[in-house]
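ugh ok fine here u go
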Amino acid sequence: MRRGIRSTYVEVESEEKYVRGKIDFSREARKSAARAHMTNLVHDELLPDRPENRLVKATLLYLRRSSRDNGNAWRATQLLSAFEGVRRCANVDVDLARCVDDRSTRAYGTLIAWCRVFLRGESFTMFKGESIATALLFPMEKVFEDYVGRLLRRKASHDALVNRVELQATGQWLFEGRRVPLRPDILCECGNGRRVVPDTKWKRVCGPRDLSVTDTHQMYAYGQRYRANGESMQHVVLVYPWHDGVSTGLMPEGRHVSGDGVQVDMFFFDLSNAATSVSSLLETIKALAGCEE
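structure:
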């Protein structure tokens, strides 16, 4: 888009005072005497109205209409301004068949493939046909982190004993002089001022023996830096996805306590029963912070 959209020569019929292109004699024979000073012409003009651009415009219109995200809808509207001289796509299959693959359209290759996905319903689920299926891959550690964090924040917003739940918390550094920032996945502050740091890990673990040294060092750093003044123990909770080899909720034998007041617990979150698990996680956090009803 930064380099502009591609144009092609399109045959245009016009009526002009001066001759350019070819004279359309069939239209000339039918014109009235009142139009004798005008000549019916057929000529080529370099216009952006080509099949590839019509497909892109149709896709942008579809995405703007279907998107639930205001930012995406706004971006689609902004991009549509570049296609003002392009007609609406009347038949997707016809325009797809008319697409050409040459030097001028080389940049459209991937773009047309995405247009086909959206306009022909070849989505990211199973469908019948000989087309190549397109898939979107997401890092599961990020999906798990966002999912648990947003569920917990929504649940805590209705709990009077929890002041706030912050995702990707900032404001603490590992070393003095604001060096090496710490960003725990979730930071929960209860009504009594005590804070608990839950941190998600998309890993299959069965017990404390499976904890990695890197994770324990990270949790210890969180515990040291997020401890409130005068607090003897800082609680950190490692949240793992539940599987058949463990029980859901807090694992009693998974507790680790350091000599200088950092306690790390293990919690298994059941994604198949997220509502129950997020309630259990919130109750665990309140119990560790000592703000239970």
